[in-house]
Amino acid sequence: MTYRQQPLRAPRLAGLRLRLVAALADSWLFGGLVCALMRRQLGVPQIWQVTAEQAPRVSPEPVPRQPSPSSPPWEMALPEPPDNFLFECGVHLAARYRDGSVTPTQVAQRVLSVCRQSDAAPRPLRAFIAQQARDVLSQAEASTARYQSGQPLGPLDGVPVAIKDELDQRGYPTTVGTCFLGAAPCNEDATAVARLRAAGAVLVGKTNMHEIGIGVTGINPHHGSPRNPYQPEHVTGGSSSGSAAAVAAGLVPLALGADGGGSVRVPSAFNGILGLKPTFGRVSEQGAAPLCWSVAHVGPMAGTVADLALGYLTIAGPDPADENTWHQPAPHLHGLDRDDLSGVRIGVYRPWFEDADPDVVVVCEEALEAMCEVGAERVEIQIPEIELVRPAHMLIIATEMAAAHQRYRAAHGRAYGADVRLNLAIARSVSTIDYLQAQRVRRRICDNFATALRSVDLIATPMAACTAPRLRSDALRSGESDLVALDRTMRFATAGNLTGLPAISIPSGQDSLGLPIGLQLIGRHWDEHLLLACAAQLEPRIRRIRQQVRFSLLAELEMSVKPGWVADVTDLLDLLARLNLLREPQLTDIRHRVAEDQPVDVGLYLAQRGVLGRAQRIAMRHLVLQEGETLTEAERLVLSWLGEQCQQQAQGIQPEGLCE
Question: Is 552 a catalytic residue?
Answer without folding.
Answer: no
